[in-house]
Specification:
GO terms for molecular function: ornithine cyclodeaminase activity. Keywords: Lyase, NAD, Plasmid. With 353 residues, this protein is of the alpha/beta class. The chain is built from eleven helices and 17 strands. It folds into two domains: 154 residues, ornithine cyclodeaminase, domain 1 (2-Layer Sandwich), CATH 3.30.1780.10; 168 residues, NAD(P)-binding Rossmann-like Domain (Rossmann fold). 35% of the residues lie in helices and 24% in strands. α2 packs across α4 and α3 crosses α4.
């Protein structure tokens, strides 16, 4: 059976299926192919509906919906961000997503997106760095060694050949965890005791912390000429990681300005501060890195088109590998106008038992 044969069945990718799918494809291959799909969709950016994500903020965290459509397919992601969760043995970020057919409105895929979001975030970071970092960048500092750190390391190595890591987290056990998880994968890893030590000699600095607050994880004196900054952790109002002075020295690249100005590092700057959209650099409509001394900053908050790309990629993969469950999600009466009759028939079957 293919995934298109039953009208009432929606392919469902559980966490178990997602893990097995990623491992069947291979983590590096998955990241490379996912990055290619993301880049492909960035190249047709104007074709998509775009809106800042719909967010419900509380003191404890945020719950968001992230929708988009290219006119043929529609996708959305439900995602939360609750930094306190780790203290309760829960994930800071969890997510699921849906991909639908615009022509009839039927869902075509329901998928876990906690693991998939980690993969798509890392793949998007590497795609941006491919166009913004100095050629031959081999050394990356990762500030914040939580759930996203290994994915970032794997994506940058797979796409850019970045194989020297300098790790720092305020929790040394997180750094040890990250280093342990990446053992034997061709990295040279240095576990650092401070941000200053971590950024020493780094071509790329990735900040990926979780605290929901204005913070200065990276100070101006931490950033020398030519560095590419991959700012991942600042992703909601009131949460930043970089000193404002760094922003004023950098050329800033973003996904979707109306969203990033609310949620990203640039919420610290005037609303008319010049930024460049990454898709324009990828298509050649704008200049990215001009010289080796330029500081480039990817102010990454995550955008719905990246999730759309991830769902599109996964659907193609499960069709190829037949890795999904059948979810009885859609009512399919014999007569589309007789939904009540479908309920009556079910009642008769129950009465006959």
């Amino acid at each position: 059976m293919t995934i298109d044969q039953k009208l009432n069945v929606v392919p469902f990718i559980s966490v178990d299926h997602m893990m097995k799918l990623v491992l069947k494809v291979g983590i590096d291959t998955f990241l490379i192919e996912l990055a290619a799909t993301i880049e492909e969709d960035f190249r047709r950016w104007p074709a998509f509906d775009k809106t800042p994500r719909v967010a419900s903020h509380s003191h404890e965290g945020v719950i968001e919906l992230m929708p988009t459509s290219d006119g043929t397919l529609y996708g959305f992601k439900y995602v939360n961000g609750h930094p306190k969760n780790t203290r309760q043995g829960r994930q800071t970020v969890t997510a699921f997503g849906v991909l639908s057919d615009v022509g009839n409105g039927y869902p075509m895929l329901l998928s876990e997106m906690t693991i998939l979001t980690a993969l798509r975030t890392a793949a998007t970071s590497a795609v941006a760095a491919k166009f913004l970092a100095r050629s031959g960048s081999r050394t990356m500092a990762i500030i914040g060694n939580g759930a996203q750190s290994e994915f970032q390391a794997r994506a940058f190595k797979a796409l850019l050949g970045t194989d020297k890591l300098r790790l720092f987290d305020i929790d040394p056990s997180a750094t040890r965890k990250c280093a342990r998880n990446l053992e034997g994968l061709g990295f040279t890893i240095v576990e650092c005791g401070s941000v200053e030590e971590a950024v020493e000699g780094a071509d790329i600095v990735t900040t990926v912390t979780a605290d929901k607050q204005y913070a200065t994880i990276l100070s101006d004196n931490h950033v020398g000429p030519g560095v590419h900054i991959n700012a991942v952790g600042g992703d909601c109002p009131g949460k930043t990681e970089l000193s404002k002075d760094i922003l004023l020295r950098s050329d800033i690249f973003v996904e979707y300005p109306p969203q990033t100005r609310i949620e990203g590092e640039i919420q610290q700057l005037p609303s008319d501060h010049a930024v460049t959209e990454v898709w324009q650099v990828i298509t050649g409509e704008a200049v990215g890195r001009r010289n080796d001394g330029q500081i480039t900053l990817f102010d990454s908050v995550g955008f719905a088109i990246e999730d759309f790309s991830a769902l599109r990629y996964v659907r193609a993969k499960i069709a190829e590998l037949n890795m999904f469950e059948e979810l009885d999600l859609l009512a399919d009466p014999d007569d589309p106008r007789d939904l009540y009759g479908m309920l009556l028939r079910c009642e008769k079957k129950l009465s006959a038992v």
